[in-house]
Write the structure tokens for this entry.
Amino acid sequence: MNHHYDIIIIGTGAGGGTIAQALADTSARILIVERGDFVPQEEENWDPEAVWKDLRYRARERWLDERGKEFTPYTHYGVGGNTKFWGSVLYRLRREDFEATEHVDGVSPAWPIDYDTLAPYYDRAERLYHVRGADGVDPTEPSRAPYPYEAVPHAPEMATIVEKLREQGLHPSPLPLGLLRIGEDDGCILCNTCNSFACKRHAKSEADVCCVRPALAHSNVTLWTNATAERLLTDPSGRRIESVDVRRNGGAVRVHAPIVIVSCGAVNSAVLLLRSASDTHPAGLANSSGLVGTRYMAHLATMMQGFHPLKKNSTVFQKTVAINDFYLRGPRTEYPLGQIQSQGRTHGVMAQTVVPWIPLWAYEAWVSRGVDWLVMSEDLPAASNRVTVDPDGRIRLRYKPNNLRAHRRLVSETKRILRRLGYWLVVTHSHGRTNTTHQCGTLCFGADSRSSVLDPYCRTHDVENLFVVDASFFPSSAAVNPGLTIAAQALRVADHIKDTKL
């Protein structure tokens, strides 16, 4: 069966969901294709065992690493995509992140746009996602309009930590968080199940709640769930997409539209283009540069916990503070190191997934006396880090983290900071080569079709009616969470489509 629309959007995460909301008020007939379904509001949303041990909401597929070893990626298929399970930290990239920056292990390349180009769209994205923060506190934050909502207050124990950080000469600042209706009857209750959990109150700022559902209120917008885009088909010239083959509820459907927007996430967007190879695009769709799937990046991320055996941590909502003092330049080095963020509380089951033979009661006793942090450094683009599709159709992720010297220095510096705060022991954990959170860079944008896949408005150089709007467009990863930048660029691309196509 054939179907005809004006715009097809594949994916409902930070890219697809945002651009759907931005285009919904046009006259275009829009089809949103989502391979998963709505995440149900249920008790298991906030159950650490269901989320972390049973992997109730995680994608069931297995990917391969560079050695052919299987692993379960940290990714979710459903309305809202991975935003359903993010911690809703919504940072702007720093002004310097848009410029070429030398790191200890290489160069982070310049973007084809600058901060000022994206700044008004950051403003809009913050309003759309209800971002709470405080301007003028973070020493690395670029000039900006005030946040649309006040920062989430620190819990008493975190407020004490903030003061002690200042005594160390540091400049702790509030984390910019997307949380809805704090203090209202149906709003956010600042619980300890925000990071990696779906919100059963729908009080977390994510693409499903902030974008997809409002878009569906428009009669011109249609959503297909449990529908997987399998292939993009071009006209005989190879210059335009004619249709999309979709597997829906077990059956094959062909959908036609003059504009197609792919927003499947950095890995799956690259995979869809590779699987859409044809006589006119033998190496994969829009791949004349040979760069589709290359330059995969994922932040260098280490979870850290400061532990004191005699001090119980009574904080419920812990994720409110960041340290950016080493973002642009570290102590005793001229190179950037990255960012330190407080994290949501670790539950015993979460820790047990790392070393299963230790009994749960021991982990619960441990995590109740800890304060959790995330240390994050920039991952640099490398052609050898890439997403490919094996002959049998399986996804293979070849990834070797780089810029490791900078990250090790940041981890060491964080250990010193936490020990000065009085913690007896600091433990660390990293997912290393299998890190698929904050994935980006597989279809980077740029002005030159020989060195990029997308143009500065995220349209493919090779196919004139195909856009890709998710973190795959990033030419560098920076060292802050990518979600707000994806949303801001989605709003910018939506304006471009309105101005030129509708």
Notes: The radius of gyration is 22 Å.
